[in-house]
Amino acid sequence: MTLFPLRTVSLPTGVPALGLLPGLALTALAVAVSQWVGRALPGVSAAVVAVVLGVALGSLTRLPAVLGAGLRFASRRLLRLAIVVLGLQVALPEVLALGWRPLALIAVSTGCAFVLTRWIGPRIGVSPRRSLLIATGVSVCGAAAIAAMHEVADSDDDDVAGAVGVVVLYGSAALVVLPVLARLAGLSPYQLGLWAGASVHEVAQVAAVGAAAGAGVLACAVVVKLARVALLAPMVAFTSLTLRRSGGRRPPLVPLFVLGFLAAVAVRSLGVVPDTVVEIVPQVTSLSLAAALFALGTGVDLRALARGGRSLALGGLATAVIGAISLIGVLAIG
């Protein structure tokens, strides 16, 4: 689905930025609300709240055409900015310090969840496009990964909202279920942090699990999660290459925003980013991603989204796969 497909917005000649202001103003208001809700509800990311607001607003009212240009800008340009800035959170020396066994666990659990989810989806009635987005969100990093894959896949806004809804539901359930299962399995704090980072969907949800268990668990869980985030670029690039070879859509071989993400990872890993910048990167990522997902949400058909029972089933299976494989790995590592 394309935002406002039947409407056009004429920008003032010579002053195109003015045409963006109404849509961007609405987006800024939605982001402010989503940030407040995210702070009030630990474990709930502002990006998730923003897409819910966008879906609700787009479904309950017919948005004026004057908002279209700004919303399109937010859903495309700000989305790519969010993915690039996300790379500044990944420092490869910290990731490599985990050791080869945790890194092997992350690679295996992420890869298996991605491949199996894409294979299972069409076989239970979920479209290949939505299966791809759910596979990416569950295996890598939730809403951010879904948004990045949306840029190269032949998916629409309904697919994005459906996939985000699935990873939010099961990722939120993990906040309660994971610590309980960890106690039953007799996991140490280190093992809990490793399991949370390797299996929980959203960065904010991983941080919530870790924070509840202690500072040591939090540090381990977040670094493991960022190792999964580092897999976003090769996964998107591989999918783009696969789509080109299939003879269908021909997205760029390596999208520019993926190159930007890799460049940001390299800059952060070289240690040349000032600490003050590193500290505000998560907030910048959260703001830009929330803006992009709100704009995408406004173009969603809620009636189509409500018929998403199979998507929920696929999300549950994918969550079970990555949770089970990563738990086996955690127990093997000891």
Automatic annotation (TrEMBL):
Cite the Pfam families for this sequence: Cons_hypoth698
Give the UniProt keywords, A-Z.
Cell membrane, Membrane, Transmembrane, Transmembrane helix
Q: Which GO terms describe its cellular component?
A: plasma membrane
Q: Where in the cell is it found?
A: Cell membrane
**According to its UniProt record, which protein family does this protein belong to?**
Belongs to the UPF0324 family.
Q: Which InterPro entries match?
A: UPF0324_pro
Question: From which source organism is this entry?
Answer: Streptosporangium saharense
Secretion signal, residue range per the UniProt entry: none
* Entry's transmembrane regions: 40-57, 78-97, 103-120, 132-149, 161-182, 194-216, 253-274, 280-300, 312-333
Transmembrane is among the record's keywords:
yes
Q: Which PANTHER family match?
A: INNER MEMBRANE PROTEIN YEIH-RELATED, UPF0324 INNER MEMBRANE PROTEIN YEIH
The membrane topology noted for this protein in its Swiss-Prot or TrEMBL record is: Multi-pass membrane protein
Q: What is this protein called?
A: Putative integral membrane protein (TIGR00698 family)
